[in-house]
Specification:
Number of strands: 16
Low-confidence stretches: none
Structural class: alpha/beta
Shape: globular
Mean pLDDT: 94
Largest sheet: 7 strands, parallel
CATH superfamily of one domain: HAD superfamily/HAD-like
Length: 285
């Protein structure tokens, strides 16, 4: 079971690479966490490689730009992979060509350059959900009628972001995973992409191998994340050692967000059937 550590520097000598979550670890959706950025930069300066792994439902180019705008410099990481990247892989490999898109217009870059096109619900042969149209005001229940009608057509739903909720600043907002969950409850067929599922880890591993110039075994890789159903489950499934950042989405579950009760952390991991190498409230060096 994990020990509470003061900084990534305590673990860094044991690993050649890091697969780090972004939202909740590196930024909060509004601004970067300077200490987390510093930790990743220092890890790279020590000779390690960093690939960021995120459930953002857009391909990676806009995420590079978003990170820069939030204050995450390119020197903090070698490369990144998104849930949008693996969603594009799924659409390219599929036979469906008419997409019922559910999500904000900012996610339409997901389909650029694909043979598939966005279509009306009545014409679609697949649904792709990237989020709620307005995640400031809407809730999943607002989509019940539309999803019920799509279930009646027996359309598969591809979820481009398995997160249920994320923190934007101090506000919790609903994500695509919440709509996928509702669709499944209504009897629909759902395909989940992104963390904790294998395709995004396969792509991240390939990126690590590319930046390292060699095959990097997972025994040399440390996963960093804050989400139990995504980051922690994904690391567990792939056999990755995990640094659990407790001050993210589950901060209130472990006592003082700045000084988590390690026994509460251990109990929660045991209850969920997971393990972690170490824990800390926020990523610091």
């Amino acid at each position: 079971m994990p020990k509470l550590i003061a900084g990534l520097s305590e673990l860094a000598p044991q690993y050649k690479a890091v697969l780090s979550d972004i939202w909740g670890v590196v930024h909060n959706g509004v601004a970067a966490f300077p200490s987390a950025v510093d930790a990743l930069i220092r890890f790279r300066q020590s000779g390690g490689h960093v690939v960021l792994i995120t459930n953002a439902p857009r391909p990676n180019p806009p995420i590079h730009a978003q990170l820069a705008a939030l204050g995450v410099p390119r020197e903090a990481y070698d490369d990144l992979v998104t849930s949008g990247d693996v969603t594009r892989d799924r659409l390219i490999g599929g036979t469906e060509r008419r997409i019922a898109h559910i999500g904000p217009d900012r996610d339409l870059s997901l389909y650029e350059g694909l043979e598939a096109r966005v279509a009306a619900d009545a014409e679609a042969d697949v649904i792709v959900v990237t989020g709620l149209y307005d995640d400031f005001t809407e809730v999943p229940e607002d989509y019940r009628a539309r999803l019920t009608a799509l279930v009646a057509r027996d359309l598969p739903l591809v979820c481009a972001n398995p997160d249920i909720v994320v923190e934007r600043g101090d506000q919790l907002i609903w994500c695509a995973g919440a709509l996928a969950r509702l669709y499944e409850e209504l009897g629909g067929r759902v395909e989940m992409l992104g963390k904790p599922y294998a395709p995004i880890y396969d792509r991240a591993h390939a990126l690590l191998n590319a930046v390292a110039g060699r095959e990097v075994p997972f025994s040399e890789v440390l996963a960093i994340g804050d989400g139990l159903p995504t980051d922690v489950r994904g690391a567990h499934t792939r056999g990755l050692d995990l640094l659990f950042v407790t001050g993210g989405i589950h901060a209130i579950d472990f006592g003082d967000p700045h000084a988590p009760d390690i026994e509460m952390v251990r109990a929660r991991l045991i209850k969920e059937g997971f393990a972690a190498k170490a824990a800390m409230p926020r990523l610091v060096w």
